[in-house]
Amino acid sequence: MKKTIIIEGMSCEHCEMHTVKELEKIDGVISAAADADQGEAVVELEKEVAEAEFKAAVEEAGYEYIKTK
Ligand SMILES: [Cu+2]
């Protein structure tokens, strides 16, 4: 199961790395990939993860969480 998270504020590879690192700490996230140009991250999930957890991870990384789709 994959979900796309819309994020504002990432501007380079370093930002992408911060975001991936935080998202991959979430229980249920198998892997994450972030794209600063697109302003999004894609997470591969092994189970349902509450949207609030994505929001917390994105904010912990230092960026603005918009939504999950
Ligand atoms: Cu950056």
UniProtKB/TrEMBL annotation:
It comes from the Bacteria. PROSITE patterns: HMA_2 (PS50846). GO terms for molecular function: metal ion binding. InterPro entries: HMA_dom (IPR006121), HMA_dom_sf (IPR036163). Residues 1-66 form the HMA domain. This is Heavy-metal-associated domain-containing protein. It comes from Halanaerobium congolense.
